[in-house]
Structure formats: structure tokens, C-alpha cells
Amino acid sequence: MSRYRVEPDRRLRWLHVMLPLAFSLSVVLSWKLWVSSRLFPLSPVSAALPPLPFPLDYLGLLLLLGCLVASAIAAQPRTLLLTGCALAVGLSLWDQMRWQPWVYQYLCMLTALGLYAGKTPADTQQRAALTICRLIVVATYFWSGVHKLNATFVRETWPDLASAVLRLLPPAVQQLPPVVWLSIPLLEMGVGLGLLARPSRQAAVLLGLVTHLVVLTCLLASGKNRVVWPWNLAMAGCVVALFWHDRDTTPRTLLRPQNAFHTLILLLFGVLPALSLLDRWDAYLSSALYSGDIHQAVIYGSPAIMARLPAPIQPYIWQGTTPFFVDLNRWAYGELHVPLYPEPRVYRSIMAQICASVGNATELKLRITTRPHLLTGHRASEYYDCQHLYGDGL
Q1: Please, are residues 368 and 381 in contact by the beta-carbon 8 Å criterion?
Q2: Long-range contact list for 192-199, CB < 8 A, 24+ apart?
Q3: For residue 101, what are the contacts with CB-CB under 8 A and spacing of at least 6?
Q4: How confident is the model at residue 9 (pLDDT cuts 50, 70, 90)?
Q5: How many helices (H) and strands (E) does the chain have?
Q6: How far is Cα 137 from Cα 231, in angstroms, rounded to an integer?
Q7: Where do the DSSP E strands lie in the chain?
Q8: pLDDT tens, 198-239?
Q9: What pLDDT digit, counting tens, does each position of 370-394 carry?
Q10: How far apart, in Å, do the first and last CA atoms of the chain sit?
Q11: Which single residue of 89, 145, 157, 258 has CA 20 to 30 Å from 119?
Q12: Side-chain-side CA neighbours of residue 316 (13 Å)
């Protein structure tokens, strides 16, 4: 058994290089997300936060990238890691669109590495950092699977994501009943639980690698959401770096808080995602990407009012039927290269700013559809107009 033992310092060295580089690559792919000098509206956590003007917004982006890249090659990365995380958190206060699942996970894992890197006693601190990172990975797999256990995922989300690959498979596979695709979330949950327990850990690592291979193949074939391609590779690397031939970590090690930060991570990744099922916690902070279990929104109006929107928005306006509508998710992908952050408060913030740009037109409407019913996929709708939103003080 000792022949296959991987020492904590080797696992941490791999994480210290892989995670900052993967994070920086995703930031480069979505660079416009991180600046204020853009058309897509910002959604700050408070209206009291004015947009960072040019060139300060670009300076913040360059400093973030500099800290991440430098921390990957520095012998003592602690200060660089914590500075980079602080910058990312600060920039995220100015725009909730930056609260993407990969940003959230990277920040928490890199903070764990930064808090314990270079501190003594070395072995104890290294194990503390690895324990927290392992907990994040286990919880991400588990809750990602839980959120996909719904009718919308098997009927719409997965067939759309995998369409480019499914077309290449035999007709018998393409015609499988949608319920078969429930095996995908069950597999994800199984990987998370398998990594938690020592007897199943090696098999879970292999299943995790297969999962990321399938997802990455679908993403590459479709060309969708390129910003998460590095994240999928990083997650696969994390599974190997954290769990391969790990015979020491027990479920109790991961689930019993050992320090204040461990307690916080257990709350953020282990407990609060359950509240997301009740719509009391953000979906993207609960590993719900590509789950189908999210709010959706469109802004619609007459052809005349849509013609008054800025020219760069026009390609994202559906004009096949009236009323015309702005596909906010396509706009977010097109300009920022990330999906729309799927929370009603963000939708309302975007709508309020569009209303301001067209002179508070009363005929412009925002439709927010609720998260779908677990079994039927039915969504209820809420409607807002410019006057309503301004009346609410947005």
C-alpha cells in the first residue's frame, strides 16, 4: 500500500499550478465579463456601487490575471493567491454575472490553498487545505446530480447539450425514452458519494474522469460555453490530485469541521445548496449549471420599441413572431461568453437598465418564468414593465 502513497505536498503542488492556470484561462475566455466598459448591463449587489470607469476596470482584470498566473509559478504563492481571490471577490460585488459556478468553486479552493500554504506545522496545514478542497469536489458532484433529477433536464437540457453527439449514435440510442437520462445525475451523485468513502474511491475517480470526458465531448461537439472547458479539465485533474490512492481521508474527516474555514465551506457547499431546492439559495451557487432547474427570462415588446435598442443587441432579438423578444441568455453568451446568471433580481436589474436606455417605454415587458416543476416541467410566469420596476426602486 505504501508503494502507491501520494504525499500531501505533491498533491498540493499540482493544485497550486493547475487551479490558478485553469481559472486564469476561463477569465481570459470571458474577459469582457470582468470589465465595466461593455454594453451588457452590470448587476451590482448594491446600487451604491458605481461602475468602475475605464481604465480602472481593465486594470482590475490585469491585476487578477497577474496574481493568478504568478501564483502558479511562485515558490511561496500564499500572498498572491489571497490577493487574487480578494480581487475576484471585489470585482464580483460590482456584477453578479461574475458569480458563475466555476468562479465560486475556484475562489473557495484557492482561498483554502492560500490560507494554509506555507504555514506550520506543514503536514497539518497541508492536510487541512486538501480536506477542504476534497469537500468542495465531493459536494459539487453530489449537488450537481441532485439538481438534475427533474423532468426538464431529461426532456430538454440534456438532449440540447448532447444533440451534436447524439446525432452520431445509432437510431436506437437516439430514441431511448427520456427517463433513461436520469442515469446521468445518478452517476454524478454516485461519483460524489463514491469519493467520500474509501472502499469505492478508486472506482469513483475513474467514473469521474469518464463523466468529464463525456461532458467535454458534448461541449466540444456543440461549441457551447467554452469558458467551462478548462473547468471540466480542472475538475478531472482535481479528482486525480485529491483522491487517487488516498486511503487516509474518511467521511468523518470531510464532514466534521476542523477549523472555521472548513465550517464555512461545509455550510456553503454541503448545506445551503439544499435551500436552493426551495428557491432560498442561488442555483449557480448550488452546482445547478446545465440542470434545467433554473429561472428563465426574456424581454419582449413591439417591433418599434425593439428597433430603439442599441445596434449590438439586435442580433439577439427574436423576430420570427410578434411581439419580438430579446434572448438574454444568447446576449450574455454572445458578449460575455458566459450564461445569464439565473436569478430574478438579476433579470430585474438588467430590465431596469434597458428601460432607462429606451426612455422608460411602457410597452417593454420582462417575463420571468419560475423554476420548472420537478415532475411535469411546468413553469409559472411573472411579468414586469418599466414603470413597475422603477416603482420598486430598482
Answers
A1: yes
A2: 192/138, 192/139, 192/140, 192/141, 192/142, 192/143, 192/144, 192/145, 193/138, 193/142, 195/134, 195/137, 195/138, 195/141, 195/239, 195/243, 196/138, 196/251, 196/254, 197/251, 198/246, 198/247, 198/249, 198/250
A3: 284, 285, 287, 288, 289
A4: confident
A5: 19, 5
A6: 12
A7: 296-301, 317-318, 324-326, 365-369, 381-385
A8: 999 999 999 999 999 999 999 999 888 899 999 999 999 999
A9: 999 999 999 999 999 888 775 544 4
A10: 61
A11: 89
A12: 19
Q: C-alpha distances in angstroms, 229 versus 23, 120, 214, 216, 232?
A: 11, 36, 12, 7, 5
Across the range 246-272, mean pLDDT stands at 95
**pLDDT value for 1:** 41
Nearest to 296 by CA among 320, 330, 322, 272: 330
- Say how many C-beta atoms besides its own lie within 10 A of residue 89's C-beta: 13
**Residue 369: all three cell numbers together:** 418564468
Cell of 270: 454541503
**Residue 10, exposed/middle/buried by CB under 10 A (0-12, 13-18, 19+)?**
exposed
- Grid cell digits, residue 20: 490558478
Average pLDDT, the chain: 92
In angstroms, rounded to a whole number, what is the distance separating the alpha carbons of residues 107 and 19?
10
Q: What percent of the chain has pLDDT over 70?
A: 97
